[in-house]
Amino acid sequence: MLCSGDNSGADKFVLVIEGMKKRRTLIVIILLMSIALSALIAFQLYWIKNSLSINEQRFDQEVQEALNNVAEKLEQQEMLYNAYTGLDYSIKFFLSGETDSFTIAPLPKAEIKFPEKNKTFGSIKGQPSFEYSFSDGTGSFNLEMEKEVFLNRNDDEATLKKEILNFYDQFDSLKNKVQDYDIKLARALNKSDMVKVVLNELFYGKRTITNRIKPEELDSLLAAELRNNGIDLNYEYGVSNISQDTLMFAHTSNRENLLESNFKTKLFPNDIIGKASFLYLYFPNETGYLLKQSAITLGSSGVLIFIILICFGYALFIIIRQKKISEIKNDFINNMTHEFKTPIATVSLACEALQDPEIRKIPEFHDRYLRIIKDENNRLGTQVEKVLQMATLEKEDIKLKKDIVDVEEVISKALDNINLQVEKKKGNIELALKANEHKVYADKVHLTNIIHNLLDNANKYSPAKPKISIQTYNLNGDVRIKVSDNGIGMTRDTIDKIFEKFYRVPTGNLHDVKGFGLGLTYVKTMVNAHGGNIIVKSEPGKGSTFEISLPLYNEQI
């Protein structure tokens, strides 16, 4: 027996070591799975964020493009307005005076022709006075013709010749200066256009922004450009100067949000003179719109993440559950081995004793050992029957041999089997059979096993001097059977697990409670098979109460 005990201790030590290794392996597996899951979820979240960012950038570009198009079309309308009102790039100044006038305008290239040097004029008759001046910043040339009275031919000829000679002496330098001016004039053509625009704004740029833009046209342009860019979203807008102290054409319920919006563009950007004005655009439901645009991406990613989490949670649940089942099965095997080993060893010893010729000569000893063999054999049969019952229950192949059964009669028979065990612990069982109707339609064998298992549990989990009570009463067409004890009791978590296969209520450091953890599973399964119900009430240290309800026979059809 000592060797057997030593082997048992060694086996338990080996099981503990193996259990620790399995536990470490399980922790590593769960840790790796958690890391992989976290990385996968992080990647999905990054992809979602990146997708939202891309959609937001595309939305910003489309909105800004729409605003720029609106500003461009408003400026085109401004140009059409100027053309319609007759304003061009030639600007005239009317000077005061009776006959004098001066015009600033691009001049065609002047072509000046002169007579030959030796040409002789006869006379000049009443020519009007004329003066031509040219200046380019480097020199000047003047041609003057004056009205003169008729002189004698010689004098007149001599006088005119002198003037013409002076003219021709300066013509070569004039020709060179005109050519230089043509080159400089070509370079100044572009500057000329710019100057004309500046002059235009100087004289006609006093039109205010409210005169240059019509609210209905602005709203229409905004709506059209947003539609052209595929944006169908409610918006608010307004026009403000650069200091944001004035808001015009406002179509908004929140001035602050509008002026803080990132969507804005400068109106009439080619204006050189005057205060700049900006068109602001704000979308109150921009976030919802962007999320809606990304609904497919968000939805698919959300479903994928949800499925991954469900699969991970289920896998984790299965792993932990399998670990618990493995531990429970190991415990079951150990208990079953112990339950079978003890009667087998007892039978073996009894057989060896009967082989002794001296004992066979003594009838008392002979009968005693035979009785021991019979009892242990019955005990083995009972344990095997429990295991076979559970195998049957797993297959859901329950065949009940129902008949009219008296519940109180079954209780009395079960008490005969349990009373001796309770009395050994100096306990007692109280009966309170108050049911007026106590006949049910049930399988008598299984019903007896149900009552016996409840009484056996009440006795096993009562440390000392068990106080067990059995009550019966009628309620709502049922017969109720209540079994109470003063045992160790159970927590809420334990109550939820006691009907699981192989589960055994923890008893701390005590290991004297025998069993396979199948009794209450069998009880619940058989009660349900009879159309009944079982409920449990318990508190740690205050005992437990099991209450069974079964339909009365007279209500069965």
From TrEMBL:
PROSITE patterns: HIS_KIN (PS50109)
A GO cellular-component term linked to this record: plasma membrane
InterPro entries: HATPase_C_sf (IPR036890), HATPase_dom (IPR003594), His_kinase_dom (IPR005467), HisK_dim/P_dom (IPR003661), HisK_dim/P_sf (IPR036097), Sig_transdc_His_kin-like_C (IPR004358)
UniProt KW ATP-binding keyword: yes
Keywords recorded for this protein, A-Z: ATP-binding, Cell membrane, Kinase, Membrane, Nucleotide-binding, Phosphoprotein, Transferase, Transmembrane, Transmembrane helix, Two-component regulatory system
Enzyme Commission number(s) from the entry: 2.7.13.3
Compartments it resides in: Cell membrane
Catalytically driven reaction(s): ATP + protein L-histidine = ADP + protein N-phospho-L-histidine
Molecular functions per Gene Ontology: ATP binding; phosphorelay sensor kinase activity
Residue spans crossing the bilayer: 26-48, 298-320
Domain Histidine kinase: 335-554
Keyword Cell membrane tagged: yes
Protein name: histidine kinase
Species in which this protein is naturally found: Mangrovivirga cuniculi
